[in-house]
Amino acid sequence: MSTYNKETEAIRTQIDRSQFLEHTSPLYLTSSFVFEDAEDMRASFTEEKQRNIYSRFTNPNTSEFVEKVCKLEGAEDGYAFATGMAAVFSTLAALLESGDHIVSAQSVFGSTHTLFTKYLPKWNISTSYFKVDEVDTIESLITSKTKILYAESPTNPAVDILDLELLGKIAKKHNLILVIDNCFATPYLQQPIKFGADVVIHSATKLMDGQGRVLGGVAVGRADLIREIYLFSRNTGPALSPFNAWTLSKSLETLTVRVDKHCENALKVAQFLEAHDKVNWVKYPFLKSHPQYEVAKKQMLKGGNIVAFEIKGGVEAGRKFLDAIKLCSLSANLGDTRTIVTHPASTTHSKLSEADRLEVSITDGLVRVSVGLEHVEDVINDLNQALES
Ligand SMILES: *Cc1c(COP(=O)(O)O)cnc(C)c1O
């Protein structure tokens, strides 16, 4: 467990230096590692010796990245993946058997939802959903087959908050594995393990890299579960590349300063939007008007960088607003230094019916802003001129 504060751990956790005594960790761009002799080879493969064998299993750069995330999350162990979705899929595939059942929050990341509805049923794994504002229904969904309780908080794209302490208690009572996708919060703002999560997943593509450069994912948590996830991944091949791991490990050194500024800017953007007459409502975890404000305050250090709001005038107004944006980017990513604006109803969720969109809290005028690190005045001015146009 951590002996230093998070800022220090994210900067100072480092693999051993090579003979050159480099200050920054070198990039180990190698597919495999050499054995000293036959005995070394044998002992490495039987795991009597803990060492790098092949970069699909482990690599010094991925190990450094994973160790940092473990320290930040307060986790026993972890494994790094090529993408956030590889982390989600590998975790579920490693921990579930045919016939098992998942209870999940209804609003989860789009591809995670597709995994639940389209792919896991192929292996006879089913999922039941609870609405984020109906957590009292969770226990009624649990059956003797239920193995995993799954949720994100804050959720994407509606920025709803789930009470992690409550989920932790339910999981414990029913002996379920609690899996939390902590992507929007980062381990700096929220550590689900403190509330009883068994596995915590991140898309490192988002705020962990924070600069829109590389894809990555990571799962950390209970050592016995991570062992299963590791063995599954070692044999199926979703490993993070050493280059991306090196980039992500460097990015974590600035995680706290970046996220502090993201949160400061996002709160100002949320306050600006809340006061604007073309806006119906704003959802930001640290605005008093957020329905789960008290829960957010309890489990998060700050509100994060995602602001959701509903523009007056539905789908048409949403599209017009996007077309009038000048500075901010229209892009599929989030958690970048650059502010990104999306309109789920006409893009990521346009294939759903209006009723299905509403089920996952996506109204026609919903706009999601991933607030970046530009001067906040410039971001607000851009949103303002687009709202006025
Ligand atoms: C982006 C995202 C993912 C998927 O991550 P990728 O790196 O794009 O595969 C999973 N969960 C959440 C909450 C996300 O925002």
Describe the structure concisely.
The protein is an alpha/beta fold and 389 residues long. Helices cover 39% and strands 14% of the residues. The strands form 2 sheets. It has a 7-stranded mixed sheet with strand order 1-7-6-5-4-2-3, sandwiched between helices. A 4-stranded antiparallel sheet has the order 8-9-11-10.
Helix content: 25-40%
Instruction: Determine the N-to-C terminus distance.
Output: 52 Å
Question: What ions, cofactors and ligands are bound?
Answer: pyridoxal-5'-phosphate
Q: Low-confidence parts, pLDDT < 50 over ≥5 residues? A: none
Rounded radius of gyration (Å)? 21 Å
CATH uppermost class of the largest domain: Alpha Beta
The neighbouring-strand order within the major sheet is 1-7-6-5-4-2-3
Structural class: alpha/beta
Task: Could you tell me the CATH topology label of the largest domain.
Answer: Aspartate Aminotransferase, domain 2
Judging from the principal axes of the Cα atoms, what is the shape?
Answer: globular
Whole-number average pLDDT?
A: 95
| Count of helical regions | 15
**Number of beta strands:** 11
Strand content is: 5-15%
CATH homologous superfamily identity of the largest domain = Type I PLP-dependent aspartate aminotransferase-like (Major domain)
Q: What is the domain total for the residues?
A: 2
Looking at how many chains there are and whether they match, the oligomeric state comes to single chain
Along the chain, the helix and strand elements come as HHHEHEHEHEHEHEEHHHEHEHEHEH
Largest sheet: 7 strands, mixed
Secondary-structure arrangement, i.e. CATH architecture of the largest domain: 3-Layer(aba) Sandwich
